[in-house]
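Below is a filled-in request sheet from our internal design queue. Each sheet records the structural input a requester submitted and the sequence that came back. We keep these sheets so that new team members can see what a complete request looks like end to end.

REQUESTER: design group, bay 2
PRIORITY: normal
MODE: inverse folding
CHAIN LENGTH: 699
BACKBONE (tokenized):
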């Protein structure tokens, strides 16, 4: 008898055990997380390779032993007669799974086993087989569990979930064996006469697996290469018998299978994949909105892997979609069974169903649940809509009401409406014309991820009703501490660009693609101060970002404006803002590290605006920057560039920042605190949003 281990995704081991027990009812089997193991035959190994819809790999144990040192890995591997298993001209690779106190690195484990194998061939033949990580003839696997090392030959070769029909996929496709597990967990496999519908089919994996099951087509039948092809103990006749028997079982499905996706491009992938799998004619495809599509079929099974907002930016679109979808299912799919795979159970709550059963499993690296529902009378009862009423919605409503009078006297269409007023709803919310940008602050470590996500859902569900902004015009980002060049990097590619206005100035903002939009709203008053002081002056804007201060200086009648930033992207953005306001004539743009440029530059200015980052270790800078540590040196370098009687307006947003006022006054500066004066009404809930001072050089 052979020692056989069959692997699958964690969470599917019990289901795999059930499948294998149905194959071999007289064989005693046991499970470990993600594994089923038993004493069996070569016929059983081949049969699993051909017929298992849940397995990933079929492993034949060839050695086992206790590991007390690194050399034990070599010794145990050397107990196998490798030349009896494959030829010296074959290529191989060693995979290694697990660590313990002796083996704390999987690369070390695989290297020791590989060394034993090649040394054995070298001593027998005077040459060694080559390693091929991409497509080896033989795949060997070492697995360490506690103190025990087991070494296997991988009979399957590539993972068995790869059925060979998926030519193209959309985003986050479900693996084939996970799709098969979903169909089994839903109950459809035991009720194949019922219709099967995947309303958000993506690349079609669930529907294709259903068609393969209904056709009784073995999942391994179309596979061309196996891990046993170059194994010297391979029984070609036995394998051919199993293959011929599998071909003879194929039948025409007797059930209806439907697949739908709103994305026509992805739906074409699904059709191509179904064609390669040989089941295209057994699936009826639709290109429609799942929240509107109706079927003529009745009392079937809906099984799907819908999007669940793995990326934060998707949530604003998905939450209302799930609300609409739940209402649609209640209205048009009463009597059906519903099974959904999700990595975000909270989003399923928007369907307003009570679940029947939930199963945990791993879909690749993502912890997921497969949740079953009965769309019975109770679940399909449509209750009157209830006005959203939670602490966040109430507070946001009060904020908007309180801002109304202030807004009447403001010449702007972009402002803050909420800033973590309630600690449990830890977000900042800004309104840009008819758009809303939500910035989720990183949750404290003591707040469970699930609770933080639930609160964010409350925010996103409340915003459309409280603000009147359509859910498609709400953008969500997560704000974490930025280091180095990360402050300049994109976070999305949606290209939601807008022209906004503020106190006579116009600005281009990008609401979606960067952490910041291109306009610091808390500097609104600061920019006005610069504008009021700029007339007939030479103005320098350091760390200029997108040049909003340069625009206001130009509007204030500055004689010249020099704009300096080390980001080419933002400097080009600044040029666009200046051009938008018809101010291009007296403006100069310089791409440079502001700190080194200032220290070596020789022109003098009447007014200098400086708003540096709190910290930077960007490769674009010659050294690191720390505003607390370096602000005095920076301001003294700026002082050298000031005309007599000139002024520096210095700002930063490090909450713990302490200006070394004494050191600056000792050098001749007259320092005036502008922190409160420059704090706009819509930011007064967060008085430490920025610091600001005027430093005037006496004549």
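RETURNED SEQUENCE:
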């Amino acid at each position: 008898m052979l020692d056989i281990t069959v692997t699958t995704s964690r969470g599917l081991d019990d289901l795999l055990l059930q499948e294998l027990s149905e194959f071999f009812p007289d064989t005693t089997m046991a499970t470990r997380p993600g594994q089923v193991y038993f004493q069996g035959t070569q016929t059983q190994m081949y049969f699993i390779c051909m017929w298992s819809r849940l397995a990933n790999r079929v492993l034949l144990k060839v050695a086992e032993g206790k590991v007390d040192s690194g050399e034990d890995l070599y010794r145990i591997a050397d107990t196998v007669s490798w030349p009896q298993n494959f030829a010296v001209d074959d290529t191989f690779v060693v995979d290694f799974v697990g660590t313990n106190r002796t083996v704390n690195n999987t690369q070390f484990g695989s290297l020791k086993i590989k060394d034993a194998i090649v040394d054995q061939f070298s001593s027998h033949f005077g040459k060694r087989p080559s390693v091929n990580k991409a497509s080896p003839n033989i795949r060997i696997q070492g697995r360490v569990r506690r103190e025990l090392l087991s070494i296997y030959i991988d009979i399957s070769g590539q993972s068995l979930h790869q059925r060979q029909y998926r030519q193209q996929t959309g985003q986050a496709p479900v693996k084939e064996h996970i799709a098969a597990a979903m169909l089994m967990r839903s109950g459809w496999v035991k009720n194949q006469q019922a219709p099967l519908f995947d309303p958000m089919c993506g690349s079609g994996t669930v529907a294709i697996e259903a068609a393969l099951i209904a056709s009784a087509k073995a999942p391994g039948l179309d596979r061309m290469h196996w891990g046993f092809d170059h194994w010297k103990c391979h029984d070609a006749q036995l394998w051919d018998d199993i293959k011929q028997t599998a071909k003879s079982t194929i039948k025409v499905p007797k059930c209806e299978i439907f697949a739908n996706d709103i994305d026509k491009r992805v739906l074409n992938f699904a059709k191509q994949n179904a064609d390669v799998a040989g089941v295209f004619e057994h699936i009826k495809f639709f290109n429609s909105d799942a929240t509107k599509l109706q079927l003529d079929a009745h009392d079937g099974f809906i099984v799907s892997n819908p999007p669940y907002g793995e990326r934060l930016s998707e949530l604003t679109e998905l939450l209302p979609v799930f609300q609409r979808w739940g209402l649609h299912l209640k209205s048009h799919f009463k009597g059906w069974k519903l099974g959904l795979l999700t990595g975000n159970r909270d989003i399923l709550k928007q369907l307003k169903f009570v679940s029947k059963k939930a199963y945990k499993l791993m879909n690749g690296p993502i912890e997921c649940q497969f949740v079953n529902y009965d769309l019975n009378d109770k679940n399909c009862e449509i209750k009157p809509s209830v006005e959203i009423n939670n602490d966040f919605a109430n507070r946001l409503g009060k904020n908007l009401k309180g801002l109304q009078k202030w807004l009447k006297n403001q010449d702007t269409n972009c402002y803050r409406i909420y800033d973590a007023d309630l600690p449990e709803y830890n977000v900042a919310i800004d309104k840009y014309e008819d758009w809303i940008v939500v910035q989720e602050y990183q949750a404290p470590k003591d707040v469970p991820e699930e609770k933080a996500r639930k609160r964010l859902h409350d925010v996103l569900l409340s915003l459309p009703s409280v603000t009147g902004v359509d859910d498609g015009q709400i953008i969500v980002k997560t704000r974490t501490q930025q280091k180095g060049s990360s402050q300049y990097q994109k976070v999305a590619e949606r290209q939601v660009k807008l022209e906004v206005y503020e106190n006579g100035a116009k600005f281009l903002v990008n609401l979606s693609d960067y952490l910041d939009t291109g306009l610091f709203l808390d500097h609104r008053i600061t920019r006005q101060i610069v504008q009021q002081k700029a007339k007939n002056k030479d103005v320098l804007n350091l760390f200029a970002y997108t040049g909003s201060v340069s625009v206001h200086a130009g509007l204030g009648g500055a004689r010249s404006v020099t704009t300096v930033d080390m980001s080419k992207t933002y400097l080009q953005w600044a040029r666009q803002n200046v051009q938008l306001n018809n101010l291009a004539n007296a403006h100069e743009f310089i791409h440079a590290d502001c700190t080194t440029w200032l220290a070596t530059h020789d022109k003098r200015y009447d007014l200098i605006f400086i708003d540096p980052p709190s910290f930077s270790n960007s490769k674009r800078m010659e050294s690191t920057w720390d505003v607390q540590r370096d602000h005095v040196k920076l301001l003294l370098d700026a002082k050298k560039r000031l005309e007599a009687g000139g002024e520096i307006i210095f700002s930063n947003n490090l909450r713990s920042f302490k200006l070394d006022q004494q050191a600056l006054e000792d050098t001749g500066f007259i320092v005036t605190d502008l922190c409160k004066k420059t704090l706009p009404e819509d930011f007064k809930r967060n008085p430490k949003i920025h610091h600001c001072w005027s430093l005037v050089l006496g004549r």
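SHEET NOTES:
- The first strand starts at residue 2 and ends at 7.
- Confidence is low (pLDDT under 50) at residues 482-488.
FILED BY: M.R.
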